[in-house]
Amino acid sequence: MRTLGKLTTTALIALTAAGLTATTAAAAPDPGTRRHDPSPSRTHLAKPDPRLTAQTKKAGTAAAFTQANCYRDVNDNAILPWYGAPVSASQPVAVSASEGTFGQEFIGDAHIYPENVQVVNSAVFVRVHTGWGAPLNICLHYVG
After folding, report:
1. CA distances in angstroms from 52 to 47, 49, 55, 87, 90, listed in the order given
2. Which CATH class is domain 1-13+62-144?
3. What is the pTM of this model?
4. Domain extents for the chain?
5. What confidence tier does 29 reach under pLDDT thresholds 50, 70, 90?
6. Per-residue pLDDT for 134 more than 80?
């Protein structure tokens, strides 16, 4: 039953990687165009400020994970928690949503998607939009 969830997550990772590759290739400058060479001080300003960039550098912190959690009777705009997640506060986590239960996910008439994601130490909270007047069974897929 969990194979389908892992397959879906693997496909999400592959599509994300392909999108990043395509974006990088599309953003590459044309070799025929002339670009201004910035001074060393401008180069320094272009680097990310480590005080503003969330990067996990602690030993023992999860570098990569995938997880699928299913919830029953979810109403529109519900906040769904995942306690015990291998995450640190502000760690990047991607979340997708689908209708169904483990091994029986499907695309129905409801428009299901995560609206907001909050990552705190050992937990991820997701506000889910269903646009449906009745409770639905929802599965969330996490990649981080």
Report:
1. 11, 5, 9, 18, 11
2. mainly beta
3. 0.57
4. 1-13+62-144
5. very low
6. yes
